[in-house]
Amino acid sequence: MTPGSPLRRMLVASVIATGACLLAADLPDRLMAGAAMAAARPPVAGDWQGELNAGGRVLRVVLHVIQNDDGTWRGTIDSPDQAAIGIRLDRLTVSPDSLGFAHDGSDMAFSGRFNETGQDIVGAFKQAGTSFPLTLKKTAKAVIVRKPQEPQPPFPYVSQDITYTNPKAGIVLAGTLTTPSAGGPFPALILINGSGSQDRDCNLFGHKPFLLMADSLTRRGFAVLRVDDRGIGGSGGDAGTVTTPDSATDVAAGLAYLQSRPDIDRARIGLVGHSEGSLIGSMVAASTKAIAAFVMIGGPGLPGETILLKQGDVLNRMAGASSAEAEASHKLQQSLFAIVKSEADPEIAQAKLSAVLHVLMAKEGRSEDAKAGAAVEAQVRALSSPWYRYFLGYDPRPELAKVTCPVLALNGEKDLQVNAKDNLESISQTLKKAGNADVTVQTLPGLNHLLQTAGTGMPSEYGTLTETMAPAALESIGQWLTTRLGKTP
């Protein structure tokens, strides 16, 4: 694909993750020797680190292996040089001679084999049909990527890991509740993640914005609940099938959990949603009078298709696309979105999407390019996923019009994913037209979609910035919530 081709501009960039499946010993007599050596080997659980030479670029890879109480295995992987931290693996298996793990969403896998000492795993890293050698070594000093604002203990408040059930979905959700160390009952807040599958800290590009926000707000006197998304961390459910309304039932279950606690003031519970989390929050706030305040951070105020087309146009322009290239990409997006919206059967939709993109591959002379083909199929799966199909056709304004509690909507001036001017105007107009008299709208100068002080605002910049969230943004949110919900008695 040429740098400016419409196909390249449509493909979603993958974050690094690996999977390993070690080969069994090929000689029977070596099995006994391997068993005898097992006692001298270091435990498999722990940290493993290596370097991946991918097309001339050296990337550090860190694997974190955890053994569950029932003997099964799970793990996460980091790519510090890409600021991709804590990526949850879909599968991790361990045998006396082998270890295997995989991440389906990024189409990556690793296969290898323990050496004789058990200190190394020698194998091959694969992505989209391309293989690279990779050796992972057991280490006690794995690379740690920690941003300067990341809160560190000891904390002047109580932090407890909790679980509760979403009876509608029949799943258990896991999170962390932080509360002031004295006083109460406390005003409380639920933090709501944006699109994609995140843990309770909203771990993105090495940043933990929800950990930072929870720390800031709890120090102000609020109880703060932050929760792993479905299928992530300690939460049950299937991350691959969840839609925005499904997530709203998870938040509603969190609300019921807070209402059941004697240390929480039921009359002072608010929601704080980031990006798609604002859509989720508006669904909950529209359905109950139990929400006393609602903060929308980078929240969409326009239909999903409008958001995505605008986002694509802006990002293409910022990336240096010519007018002709940007227009071709826009038309391609429109044609793909039309298929998703018009074809109810996901399998038929996938076939039609794949046909359009493979015709484009042929025009660009890439029909035999296995890497491009695999990337196209990954894009097709993403476009036809339940979440994408729902978001594409969703208009947030009817639900927003039902929200009667005080609302703070704020965006960064350099937000290239959810345009500040267009969306804040729509949110404000929708709420005020419906009769909501307490609506505050703020555009924060120089900040991006994550409320970081930004250079360009491009998503590629998020992980390179040391700032997790601008202090001015934390202050704006904290002051507004304190004014609306009051301080702890």
Secondary structure: elements and pairs:
Elements: H1 6-10, H2 28-38, E1 46-54, E2 57-67, E3 73-79, E4 84-88, E5 91-94, E6 99-103, E7 108-114, E8 120-127, E9 130-139, E10 157-166, E11 171-180, E12 186-192, H3 209-219, E13 223-227, H4 244-259, E14 264-274, H5 276-287, E15 291-297, H6 304-318, H7 323-342, H8 346-363, H9 370-383, H10 386-393, H11 397-400, E16 407-412, H12 420-433, E17 439-444, H13 471-485
Parallel strand pairs: 12-13, 12-14, 14-15, 15-16, 16-17
Antiparallel strand pairs: 1-2, 1-9, 2-3, 3-4, 5-6, 6-7, 7-8, 8-9, 10-11, 11-13
Helix pairs in contact: 4-5, 6-7, 8-9
Quick summary:
The chain has 489 residues and is α/β, with parallel strands linked by helices. The chain is 33% helix and 26% strand.
Key terms:
about 500 residues; alpha/beta; Lipocalin; Rossmann fold; 9-stranded antiparallel β-sheet; 17 strands; globular
Give your account of this protein's structure.
The protein has 13 helices and 17 strands. The chain has helices at 6-10, 28-38, 209-219, 244-259, 276-287, 304-318, 323-342, 346-363, 370-383, 386-393, 397-400, 420-433, 471-485, and strands at 46-54, 57-67, 73-79, 84-88, 91-94, 99-103, 108-114, 120-127, 130-139, 157-166, 171-180, 186-192, 223-227, 264-274, 291-297, 407-412, 439-444. The protein has three domains: 6-139, Lipocalin (Beta Barrel), CATH 2.40.128; 157-302 and 395-485, Alpha/Beta hydrolase fold, catalytic domain (Rossmann fold, 3-Layer(aba) Sandwich), CATH 3.40.50; 305-391, no CATH class. The termini are far apart. Helix 4 (244-259) crosses helix 5 (276-287) and helix 8 runs antiparallel to helix 9. Strands 4-3-2-1-9-8-7-6-5 form a nine-stranded antiparallel β-sheet, with no helix packed on it. Strands 10-11-13-12-14-15-16-17 form an eight-stranded mixed β-sheet, with helices on both faces. It is an alpha/beta fold. A hairpin with a 5-residue loop joins strand 2 (57-67) and strand 3 (73-79).
